[in-house]
Every structure is written in structure tokens, then in C-alpha cells.
Design brief:
Elements: H1 8-12, E1 25-33, E2 37-41, E3 47-51, E4 66-73, E5 81-84, H2 85-103, E6 107-109, E7 113-115, E8 118-123, E9 126-131, H3 148-156, E10 163-171, E11 176-180, H4 181-195, E12 201-210, E13 213-218, E14 221-226, E15 247-255, E16 259-263, H5 271-275, E17 284-293, E18 296-300, E19 306-310, H6 322-325, E20 331-340, E21 345-350
Parallel strand pairs: 3-5, 14-16, 19-21
Antiparallel strand pairs: 1-2, 1-4, 2-3, 4-5, 6-10, 7-8, 8-9, 10-11, 12-13, 12-15, 13-14, 15-16, 17-18, 17-20, 18-19, 20-21
């Protein structure tokens, strides 16, 4: 190893100074730190030149720091030797990485970059990857699969943040190092899952709003409010009801190994039960056509009550086409044929149907 402290006698006895050899590891002290390079005092072995890319993404150096470097080129044209702190750290780092994985230890990392597949991480000089699929519920970018720019934006927000992870896979020969945030928190999640039961009311933060529902982070556990459980009203777009970052309350309606199924609407009384009381068999009602199907049409007859007028109740025989009878959002008069409270169904007949 080189020593920064050297006597004149040592310099005069040049034969005693060990020459640098490519591939070996040596030590020195930082002489200067610039934007694109670091110079290292190697004592009798001269000055080492370290390009910024060979320092390492997470390394912060100060003048006087002792560093360990790998020799890339023993002598450049300018008399310096070309060194890599990153390679020396990486060689030692693989041993550390393997030990951490074998022990199942939780470690702290800070991603230095991101792409749509996940986070780029350097740990102990070794570059690795934290896939999107291994992020916790808190950090997983729950957006529509087609919205790739939003996914990348969410991941970029994690760059520089401290994340607790476990090493999922480590293969030095294949130069593969994979981290998992989900693995680091799974023990704590298991304990939290045991404390929850169906029927509980929980508070969570909305982490994603997609076509089929709302993702919610409940103290580190992922929950999903399906579009059918957002409101007693018919919901066309979940984004009309909640926004990312909003705190909501919901009721647990089922629990599986990794996720909670939640309901927002079940925390309030079903208005259908009250509104249906105003309708009885044989009464005339006015309603708005909300959906037209091959077998009939759905009609809104009160804010919470939707009823069905079957194709057989349109008149005109079997070949009648509901598309020709109804127009979306038009209002018409109907007769209530049946009210089935147990199954939440009301059947209608067109009031002025053709014979």
C-alpha cells in the first residue's frame, strides 16, 4: 500500500518504491475535488487521476480523505496514474452485498436515477436495480398502464430518497443485483394484517386513480376501492370522486394475502332503500334513459334508483330495436311492473308502447 508520508531518503532510494501495477489496489489521500476529476496523492508513487464517473454516484469526497483505488493505467501521458475508486469499491462491495443478502438484512439505499422499469441504485460501489414491481404500496406508481410519462414522473420523485430494502438477488458473475422494498416491509405488514378484520373502518391515502377503481395506501398496506364501491351512484369516472394524495375513509370488505378490498360507499346508508319506498306496482313514473342495450334500456327514476324496461315491454313485437325506441338522456313515461327490494330490482313498461 502507498503512504502519503515519505522521507527524502525514501525518494533517493528509488529502487525501494514499489511501482504501480494495473489491476492492483492502492491507497492515497485526496488532493483536489473538481467537477470532472479527483486527484489523489499516492506518496512516492506519484499522483493518481480519477475521472468523475469512476468516483461513484453516491460518493462524496473532501480534500484529505483517505481513499482506496484500483489502478486502471499505471502511467498516463501527463505522468499521472489512472485510478478508479468505483472499481475498488465494487470489488469489496460484492462481498458486502452477498453477506447482506445471506443475512436477510434490511439496508438503506438512495436511488440515483429512474427509468420506466424501476429505480437505479448503487450500494457499496455495486450498481443494482429496484424494479417497479418490488416497490411498496406507498411508492408504487398506480397510474393507467398507458400513462408512461406519469409513471416515470412518479419514479423520478423517489430519486435521492432513502428507501429501506432487502437484496432479492445477487449474482456477481452475471453482474446482477436486485433490491426489493416489498421484502423489507413484509414482516411489519404481516403483523398489521393480523390486526385488521372485515368490517373495520380504515383511513388511507389515495395512491392511484384508474379506470376500474382507486388504490389506497393504508399504513403501508395496499387497498383497492373498486369502481362499484366508490358511491351508491353509478360511477363513470373514479377521478370525479377522489384525487391522488387525498385522505379517505373506507370499510374493509375482504382481505387477501397482499391487498385489502375496500368500500367507500358502505360507510353511508344506501339511499336506494329510502327512495324505493315511493314506487309501487302499477304507478306511473317519469325517468331518464341512461343506457340502451340489445335487451332493453335502463332508466333513472330517482337519484339513486335505476330500473329496467325489458325489450318485451316496448311493444311492436319481438323484432323491436331498443336503439330505435330510445335516445340516451331522453325523458319518458313508464309504468312500474314490479318492485323487488331483496334483489334491488325494479321492472318498467313503456307507458305509451305500441300494440
Amino acid at each position: 500500500m502507498a503512504n502519503a508520508t515519505i522521507t527524502m531518503d525514501d525518494l533517493l532510494a528509488g529502487d525501494n518504491v514499489k511501482q504501480l501495477v494495473v489491476g492492483e489496489v492502492t491507497t492515497g489521500h485526496v488532493l483536489s475535488v473538481r467537477k470532472h476529476e479527483v486527484l489523489v496523492d499516492l506518496g512516492a508513487q506519484g499522483v493518481g487521476f480519477v475521472p468523475r464517473r469512476e468516483v461513484g454516484f453516491s460518493r462524496q469526497l473532501n480534500v484529505g480523505d483517505e481513499v482506496t483505488a484500483s489502478v486502471v493505467d499505471a502511467e498516463l501521458d501527463n505522468g499521472y496514474s489512472l485510478l478508479s475508486l468505483r472499481k475498488a469499491a465494487k470489488d469489496r462491495g460484492w462481498e458486502e452485498v452477498q453477506a447482506k443478502m445471506d443475512a436477510g438484512e434490511i439496508i438503506d439505499v438512495s436511488p440515483y436515477d429512474a427509468n420506466r422499469g424501476g429505480m437505479l441504485v448503487e450500494y457499496e460501489g455495486v450498481r443494482g436495480f429496484l424494479p417497479v414491481s418490488q416497490l411498496s404500496a406507498e411508492h408504487y406508481p398506480r397510474v393507467g398502464s398507458a400513462d408512461k410519462d406519469e409513471i416515470l414522473s412518479r419514479l423520478n420523485a423517489l430519486v435521492g430518497q432513502s428507501l429501506k430494502v432487502r437484496i432479492l438477488d445477487c449474482d456477481r458473475k452475471a453482474n446482477k443485483l436486485i433490491f426489493s422494498e416489498k421484502e423489507a416491509i413484509k414482516d411489519g405488514l404481516a403483523a398489521r394484517f393480523e390486526q385488521l378484520k372485515i368490517g373495520d373502518t380504515v383511513t388511507g391515502v389515495v395512491t392511484g386513480v384508474v379506470d376500474f377503481g382507486v388504490f389506497v395506501n393504508v399504513d403501508g398496506i395496499e387497498g383497492l376501492v373498486h369502481i362499484s364501491e366508490i358511491s351508491w351512484e353509478r360511477v363513470s369516472n373514479p377521478a370525479d370522486y377522489v384525487k391522488v394524495g387525498q385522505n379517505i375513509e373506507a370499510k374493509i370488505i375482504s382481505i387477501d394475502k397482499e391487498r385489502l378490498s375496500l368500500s367507500m360507499k358502505q360507510l353511508t346508508k344506501d339511499p336506494w332503500l329510502d327512495e324505493v319506498e315511493q314506487f309501487s306496482k302499477g304507478t306511473k313514473v317519469e325517468g331518464t334513459v341512461t343506457r340502451i342495450t340489445p335487451f332493453g334500456a335502463f332508466v333513472q327514476i330517482s337519484p339513486a334508483v335505476e330500473a329496467l324496461v325489458h325489450i318485451s315491454e316496448l311493444g311492436g313485437g319481438e323484432g323491436v330495436d331498443p336503439e330505435k325506441v330510445f335516445t340516451l338522456n331522453e325523458r319518458k313515461d313508464f309504468i312500474v311492473l314490479d318492485v323487488d327490494k331483496d334483489n334491488r330490482k325494479i321492472s318498467l313498461s313503456l307507458a305509451d308502447k305500441k300494440k
